[in-house]
Amino acid sequence: MLTACLAPGSSLGKEMIRTPADFPVLGEFEPLLEKVMLKDGGPDESLATVVAKPAVAALIEKHQLKLFGGPMVGAVTHDAAKIWLRTTAPATVDIELTGKTFTGKTTADTDFTIVIDLTDLSPNTQQDYTVLIDNEDAASGTFRTAAEPGEGEVLKVAFGGGARYNPPKERIWSTIAKRKPDAFLWLGDNLYQDEPESRSLQRLYYYRRQLRPEFQTLTSSCANYAIWDDHDFGKNDTAGGPDKFKPAWKLPVWKVFKENWPNPAFGGGAEQPGCWFNWRQGDVEFFMTDGRYYRDFKVGKTMLGPVQKAWLKEQLAASTAPFKVLCSGTLWTEHADKGGKDSWWGVPEERDEIFDWIQSEKIDGVILASADRHRTDIYQIKRPGGYDLYEFETSKLTNNHTHNTRDKALFSYNKGNFYGLLSFDTTVEDPTVTFECITIDDEVVHTFQLKHSQLRMPAK
Question: What average pLDDT does the chain have?
């Protein structure tokens, strides 16, 4: 049982689990998986092919493993949620909570993963759940449902990027879990695969992260939402181009991504692949954008492609949430690195089209979140005739590599490893959003607050 080593919600000190050798299951599986999937295997290995190997089957039997990843919570609203997990073989999965049982089956077609929908939950309530695999207890966890829209709450949402698998730094997941966020936003470079034509490598990188007990501690206790950036979609600075299915590696990469996250949606589905989606949690609506699959800076001059851009405008116009968070895998600011060659400033016309449209439609409460650069930044994007847009960027969760700070930012920090935390308080007369930059050692190094009144169109 994977989660027996570390119960969801517990924390890890600096000197606890740091390397695979400190965790017997991962310590034994990691080198074996690398051997059978990369050294001995082909480009399309999956768990179904791997567990057929005698050495892997023997380890599964030795540790009596039923789970090979998860549970991971996702898509939490005031009355519903999803639970993702991966078994070691085809299995019947039951999720039990509050006197209810939700059931599904895993198959090899989805790499033994499943997403089970939990429905008819009570709002703003702690939900304690148990996972059973073939009628045997396998894991447990807890999360909180959102308040009903308009009821008011304090909602805590952690986020970041730059999460190369790095055993000495994996303890950051427990640091984040200790703050008990309601959600975590994975804003790209969640894994540095950089091999778009090797499903074997992509899956291996997911397996070893998902086997980490610190990762399980975080993902089993809050909602998880993920988009990709270049290092989990393709290679460095990748632009997918306008075609839905070319290059040929795009669709298989998308399918592996889908196997590993409990998102509310994945772009437009099989007819319009991608990883964009939106959801509302209480009085905050999040819009996760895909800046890679259809990116074309040369001919089409687009980050999103026409379908996704139309979707974004439609959903923003329909939103009644006081706060709206536009999330991107790369920076929005005109002060981005590389002169904008790998950010929204690479297509300034499309960026400004969206910002001008927000202004013309009088959409209040918009803030920006992003990742990619290995530091934390706050930018103020001036919008004459409207309200200024504030961007919060952070992308050094576990990476060792660091990018220089930026003097054009209101705040810029790059020491060690860290994440961002957005706390929304909609219980007060003038609702607030507070950003904190928090280190791997749980030190708050900067705090910045905005009031909703600062994010409204000026009266004429």
Answer: 94
DSSP collapsed to 3 states, the chain: CHHHHCCCCCCCCCCCCCCHHHCHHHHHHHHHHHHHHHHCCCCCCCHHHHCCCHHHHHHHHHHCCCEEEEEEEECCCCCCEEEEEEECCCEEEEEEECCEEEEEEECHHHCCEEEEEECCCCCCCEEEEEEEECCEEEEEEEEECCCCCCCCCEEEEEEECCCCCCHHHCCHHHHHHHCCCCEEEEECCCCCCCCCCCHHHHHHHHHHHHCCHHHHHHHCCCEEEEECCHHHHCCCCCCCCCCCCCCCCHHHHHHHHHHCCCCCCCCCHHHCCCCCEEEEECCEEEEECCCCCCCECCCCCECCCHHHHHHHHHHHHHCCCCEEEEEECCCCCCCCHHHHCCCHHHCHHHHHHHHHHHHHCCCCCEEEEECCCCCEEEEEECCCCCCCEEEEEECCCCCCCCCCCCCCCCEEECCCCEEEEEEEECCCCCCEEEEEEEECCCCEEEEEEEEHHHHCCCCC
CA distances from 194 to 23, 103, 235 (A): 27, 36, 4
Average pLDDT over residues 163-169: 96
Tokens standing for residue 403: 């990018």
Give the domains, in start order, of the chain with CATH numbers.
148-455 (3.60.21.70)
Q: Write out pLDDT tens, residues 226-240.
A: 999 999 999 999 999
Question: Which amino acid does the sequence have at 346?
Answer: G
Longest dimension (CA), the chain: 73
CA angle 399, 177, 142 (to 5 degrees): 140
Q: Please determine, for residue 339, whether its predicted confidence score (pLDDT) is greater than 60.
A: yes
C-beta separation of 273 from 250 below 8 A: yes
> Regarding beta strands 113-118 and 376-381, do their DSSP bridges make them parallel or antiparallel, or are they unpaired?
unpaired
Sheet with 323-328, strands from edge to edge, namely 277-281, 284-288, 323-328, 366-370, 389-394, 376-381, 411-413
From the number of C-beta atoms within 10 Å of its C-beta (0-12, 13-18, 19+), residue 325 rates as: buried
Q: Distances in Å between the alpha carbon of 180 and those of 22, 159, 218, 378, 450?
A: 25, 13, 9, 23, 22
β 277-281/223-227 pair status? unpaired
pLDDT tens column, 290-328: 999 999 999 999 999 999 999 999 999 999 999 999 999
The single-letter code of the amino acid at 413 is Y
State how far the alpha carbon of 261 is from the alpha carbons of 106, 190, 266, 433, in Å: 15, 11, 10, 27
